[in-house]
Amino acid sequence: MAHALPPSPLAARAGRPLVGRIRVPGDKSISHRSLMFGAVTVGETRIDGLLEAEDVLGTATAMRALGATVTRDGDGRWRVTGLGVGGLLEPEGVLDFGNAGTGSRLAMGLIGGHAVAATFVGDASLSRRPMGRVLDPLRQMGVAVIARAGDRLPLTLKGPQTALPITYRVPMPSAQVKSAVLLAGLNAPGVTTVIEPVATRDHTERMLLGFGADLTVEIGAAGERIIRLTGRPELKPQTIVVPGDPSSAAFAVVAGLIVPGSDVTIENVLLNPLRTGLFTTLIEMGADLTIENPRRSGGEEVGDVRVRASRLTGVVVPPERAPSMIDEYPILAVAAAFAQGPTVMEGLEELRVKESDRLAAVARGLAANGVEAREGESSLTVLGRGTGPIGGGTVVTDLDHRIAMAFLVLGLAADRPVTIDDSAVMATSFPSFRSLMEGLGGEFADA
Ligand SMILES: O=C(O)C1=C[C@@H](OP(=O)(O)O)[C@@H](O)[C@H](O)C1
Ligand SMILES: C=C(OP(=O)(O)O)C(=O)O
């Protein structure tokens, strides 16, 4: 795992325009779910374009430990032969989820619905993130939990003989919490209901329907989403084609907008409307961003995203947009650093419990590079391009891949190089970040 190695600093600096067409690796959310749903399906699920990054590889290892057969062909196609809903086996060792919030929390739901015990561990970042948000509903479903104070990793859970279907209103906008309850509900006899006051990414719902589950989504009187899942379905093996991850594409998109003279196309990007808040915001800022070749693939909207260098203007990003771009605020803050006038981002409380406290990390990284920003309790204001030079600083990544990549992009357009203290963290979600950006003309140097 990245954190066990000595840190490997990396610097990015401005050079020529970024030009070309790239494909980014597969979507992380869909990749985790493909492996997990395949593990509780009888028969062989095939996955093309699985994200081969540390977080998802950790989920593959965990599914093997639970008894599923998970293999990779020479041509990069993955195969999962599962055990059916209710069929998971008790793992022998601990399950190490590394840096992965999604992997660990969704697996807690999946395993919590089974009458097996499992111990979850992770890296220093994952071990400080709150797990009570998932454990609370699982306890209501009959899961026994032994955890450190504050419900942090490492922890052990044991699923009941028969999980209780519950009705659960998700208290914070979180697709991970929603998904954990639905995954536990898969093996609960009866109907599990999850109520989401604010819509979050809906890959669990779309994919469970694709696997043949009996699932409905109703919109309530106050606009809330009411998701009902009938437990103990017989899931049917699928062939899944994972589109490019918009959260990874985001780095090349913003780089193409802020490096003068650039023209970059990212092909085959997932464009699920619950994931595209960043693109909406950039267009509002004046970005020359177009979607080419829009199409559907595997039950999801996809397209090619083309950007050309643009003069950006600061905007106010409304809090209700946050769930559709929750992982993209660090890179939006970088775009905002090159905009004319302030960009105000609100409703960001969830950023404090990601791989790092991203509100603080972004504000610190900008300050280290001469960009003025104001950090509020749950908001961030980036004042935009001032008169002084941008860059020249070193950014503390604190085991956070998105902080690392966002600030390297800052360096590609800054007046002075920007250094991150550890580039290994990018392996969490986007191991090919550096080579893809170099292919477009980006300049990096080991520092
Ligand atoms: O369900 C998912 O795949 C994810 C949900 C989001 O987390 P939250 O549910 O904590 O908002 C997001 O930040 C994460 O990268 C992936
Ligand atoms: C928050 C993220 O991931 P996770 O919660 O899965 O660790 C992310 O990838 O930005």
Description:
The chain has 447 residues and is α/β, with parallel strands linked by helices. It has 2 domains: 2-26 and 243-446, Enolpyruvate transferase domain (UDP-n-acetylglucosamine1-carboxyvinyl-transferase, Chain), CATH 3.65.10; 28-230, Alpha-beta prism (UDP-n-acetylglucosamine1-carboxyvinyl-transferase, Chain). The protein is 28% helix and 25% strand. The chain has 12 helices and 24 strands. The protein has helices at residues 28-39, 54-65, 101-112, 132-140, 175-185, 203-210, 246-258, 277-284, 329-337, 358-368, 401-413, 433-440, and strands at residues 10-13, 19-23, 43-48, 69-72, 78-82, 95-96, 117-121, 144-147, 155-158, 167-169, 191-196, 215-219, 225-230, 239-241, 263-270, 288-297, 300-308, 316-317, 343-346, 373-375, 379-382, 394-395, 418-420, 443-446. It has a 4-stranded mixed beta sheet. Strands 2-15-17-16 form a 4-stranded mixed beta sheet. It has a 4-stranded mixed beta sheet with strand order 4-5-3-14, covered by helices on one side. Strand 16 (288-297) and strand 17 (300-308) form a beta hairpin. It is globular and about 65 Å long. Bound molecules: shikimate-3-phosphate and phosphoenolpyruvate (PEP). Residues 29, 101-102, 174-176, 179, 201, 326-327, 350 line the site of shikimate-3-phosphate.
